User: Which sequence fits this backbone?
């Protein structure tokens, strides 16, 4: 268990950031230190003062910003960044909501048309692609081809680690609040801070990186960079007070590992929406904060969860190696996976640890059976019509059947049927007791999705 | 975790020791009094930088006639957002920076706006002198204060200023102010977020800047002043909330403005160069700047540029957007002639308009 919980430990031991001299992570966090008094011996035994380390850290930050800003784009009121040599641009979905085509401007102001290849509104991520017109790949002012930013490993980020945000707060770079005087300079704003916490659950941001980096309106969609220049998140949300909407030192970023799982889907979505996944057919405890995992209160018979081998009273220890200790964490981890993704679960049952695999299905999708029914005086439902190719037809139901029980429960009206189906999920297998020609038959219907 | 805490404690205890250095550094000031001071030794610690900030930063107490006069009361509701922000700011000390000339202090114009009754400057050695505003630059939010008094002028070490060309986004900075306590500086840290705001006259920083910082220095790790904290942009109500987006008038702007102010003249409003064309808001610029409106009698109209033309080059530089064109024009001066390439349908036309200065009669 302790290994699983490692991401939550808050000790950030000094570690080299880039080459030599090593710059401890806490250094600029303790920027105000009277550094001359604190000379520390490096691994090679040489004495490097904290101030020299601070200067080295500054050099790293300056070079990083200089390089990374070329890949930054201004997107009609928000921010974004280049992630592929073909011209893919990542941003927050709320920056491009309701749009399929827009204009993006690189640092320096060069404009391109771009189309949205995919929306992920649940994860607040969208992917754009520059429309080629002969002048792409984009070149920086020195004439060098701008390289895409690389996504880093957001699970390797440590609390206390220094991070840099690039963005366009208050649209200072693209609109310029001094508009009556000078034209906008199309330079992004950089801000430096530390990772305050990992795996924060804040509404849609189910597994967010929390930072104290200054992030404001207009930063949305911009990259959160480690000092090695890797993108570990997209800055998209802040905690704010009094509806003022300015930074309070609490910002949230969508983690890069979540983004990476959605990227191929966003690329092929054809401008449409990609869906997050969830485990259908499982009820977990509301509250729970236990080293022994999260209690599975009920597994619905025939559901995907049941088919994956989960049982009532199992304790869910981990999803893909990440500890599950609360309902928020359970939903938090699942929120980082797309539908149709297969995940590994570690469960505890009768003192034994077991591995199970389950394929996630669309979160919140409406289950569908494909029946038109009417109430019957003697109880049960008359099947009036069976929709062709529906789950009901595939289960063998025909018009004229009388449905007595769904999953052993009496259903006496079309409204009750609707309510019953809505408590189930796509993929659930439901046993139905049917009266046909005076005989009782057992059929099994596998619920489909509305769009199937 | 434990070593980190220990380090922090060590750090804090040493930091607490700085205030005791004060009397010592005050006596050092005498050696720096001459007008052409020997260059200070480069800082070797944050403490060295703070010591510089202490030498160069003054506290200013401004007393005004009744704030806002007749505007107080019911009429206040009709004030602009800018004026409301101004009247809402907290009372107390603000900051200023020595210029190197004894008795002279440069500060933010915002600090001395309004009906000023009296100004008192508290110098780094604790001396307090009455002063008055010599001249101001409203555009760059700067004001020069000169103190009065028949006693010998207080020591005035000249600060080191960073030239704008050497600045880069990401540089670490410390902002210092002598507020709320004029005897001790308050220091906050951050980085330079962007260097070229307001037509390369203002830098942006994520260091915490509050009202008392206004007029105070922002220093880099070389101990040079890179900017004077400013309330330029305070029309944004957000500014008052310290959003991590703060501004400083860059040292180059200060040095350029100082001689004008020292001569007793207010700096003139810059007269931005004008080409006299307007952007087409409906069509995004992809390659070139599409003209949707022309200023009658403007530079562009005089050389025959028409609605619908696309300006593609200025003095050989390909123009990729209207904002790009604006930036290129802005970097020139009124009265200069520029060469433009203009696309009109399938034709390419070359014209040479003479830029006008904003406000030209």
Assistant:
């Amino acid at each position: 268990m302790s290994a699983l919980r490692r991401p939550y430990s808050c000790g950030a031991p000094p570690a080299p950031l880039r080459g030599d001299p090593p710059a401890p992570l806490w250094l600029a966090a303790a920027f105000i230190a009277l550094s001359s008094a604190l000379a520390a011996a490096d691994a090679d035994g040489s004495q490097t003062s904290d101030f020299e380390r601070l200067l080295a850290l500054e050099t790293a930050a300056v070079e990083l910003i200089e390089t990374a800003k070329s890949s930054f784009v201004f997107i009609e009121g928000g921010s974004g960044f280049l992630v592929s040599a073909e011209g893919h641009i990542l941003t927050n979905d709320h920056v491009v909501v309701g749009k399929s085509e827009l204009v993006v401007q690189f640092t320096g102001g060069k404009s391109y048309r771009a189309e949205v290849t995919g929306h992920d509104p649940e994860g607040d991520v969208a992917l754009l692609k520059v429309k080629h017109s002969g002048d792409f790949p984009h070149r920086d002012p020195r004439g060098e081809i701008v390289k895409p930013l690389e996504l880093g490993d957001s699970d390797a980020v440590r609390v206390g680690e220094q991070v840099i945000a690039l963005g366009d707060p208050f649209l200072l770079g693209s609109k310029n609040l001094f508009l009556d005087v000078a034209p906008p300079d199309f330079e992004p704003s950089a801000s430096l801070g530390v990772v305050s916490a990992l795996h924060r659950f804040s509404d849609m941001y189910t597994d967010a990186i929390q930072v104290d980096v200054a992030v404001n309106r207009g930063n949305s969609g911009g990259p959160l960079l480690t000092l090695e220049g890797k993108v570990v998140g997209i800055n998209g949300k802040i905690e704010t007070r009094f509806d003022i909407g300015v930074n309070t030192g609490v910002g949230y970023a969508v983690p890069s590992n979540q983004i990476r799982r959605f990227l191929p889907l966003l690329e092929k979505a054809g401008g449409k929406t990609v869906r997050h996944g969830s485990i259908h057919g499982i009820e977990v405890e509301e509250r729970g904060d236990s080293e022994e995992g999260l209690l599975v209160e009920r597994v619905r018979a025939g559901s995907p969860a049941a088919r994956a081998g989960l049982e009532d009273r199992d304790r869910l220890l981990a999803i893909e190696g990440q500890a599950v200790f609360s309902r928020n964490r359970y939903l938090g981890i699942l929120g980082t996976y797309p539908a149709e993704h297969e995940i590994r679960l570690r469960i505890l049952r009768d003192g034994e640890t077991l591995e199970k695999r389950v394929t996630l299905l669309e979160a919140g999708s409406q289950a569908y059976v494909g029946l038109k029914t009417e109430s019957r005086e003697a109880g049960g439902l008359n099947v009036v019509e069976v929709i062709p190719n529906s789950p009901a037809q595939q289960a063998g139901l025909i018009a004229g059947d009388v449905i007595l029980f769904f999953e052993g429960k009496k259903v006496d009206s079309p409204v009750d049927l609707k309510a019953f189906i809505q408590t189930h999920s796509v993929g659930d297998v439901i046993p139905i007791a049917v009266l046909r020609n005076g005989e009782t038959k057992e059929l099994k219907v596998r619920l489909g999705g509305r769009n199937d | 975790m434990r070593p980190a805490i220990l380090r922090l404690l060590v750090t804090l205890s040493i930091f607490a020791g700085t205030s005791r250095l004060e009397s010592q550094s005050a006596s050092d000031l005498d050696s720096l009094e001459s007008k052409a001071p020997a260059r200070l030794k480069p800082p070797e610690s944050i403490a060295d930088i703070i010591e510089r900030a202490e030498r160069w930063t003054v506290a200013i107490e401004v007393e005004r006639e009744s704030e806002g006069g007749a505007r107080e009361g019911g009429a206040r509701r009709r004030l602009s957002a800018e004026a409301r922000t101004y009247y809402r700011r907290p009372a107390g000390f603000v900051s200023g920076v020595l210029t190197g000339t004894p008795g002279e202090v440069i500060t933010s114009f915002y600090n001395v706006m309004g009906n000023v009754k009296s100004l008192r400057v508290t110098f780094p050695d604790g001396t307090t002198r009455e002063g008055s505003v010599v001249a101001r630059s409203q555009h760059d939010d700067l004001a020069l204060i000169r103190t009065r008094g028949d006693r010998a002028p207080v020591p005035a070490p000249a600060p080191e200023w960073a030239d704008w060309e050497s600045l880069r986004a990401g540089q670490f900075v410390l902002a210092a102010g002598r507020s709320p306590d004029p005897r001790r500086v308050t220091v906050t840290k951050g980085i330079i977020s962007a260097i070229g705001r307001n037509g390369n006259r203002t830098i942006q920083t994520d260091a915490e800047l509050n009202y008392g910082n206004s007029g105070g220095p922002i220093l880099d790790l070389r101990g040079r002043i890179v900017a004077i904290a400013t309330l330029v942009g305070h029309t944004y109500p957000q500014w008052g909330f310290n959003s991590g987006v703060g501004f400083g008038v860059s040292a180059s702007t200060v040095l350029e403005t100082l001689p004008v102010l020292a001569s007793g003249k207010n700096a003139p409003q810059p007269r931005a160069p004008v080409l006299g064309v307007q952007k087409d808001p409906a069509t995004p610029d992809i390659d070139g700047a599409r003209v949707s409106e022309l200023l009658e009698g403007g530079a562009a109209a005089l050389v025959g540029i028409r609605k619908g033309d696309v300006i593609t080059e200025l003095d050989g530089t390909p123009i990729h957007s209207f904002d790009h064109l604006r930036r290129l024009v802005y970097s020139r001066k009124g009265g200069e002639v520029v060469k433009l390439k203009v696309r009109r349908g399938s034709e390419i036309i070359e014209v040479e308009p003479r830029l006008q200065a904003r406000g030209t009669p």
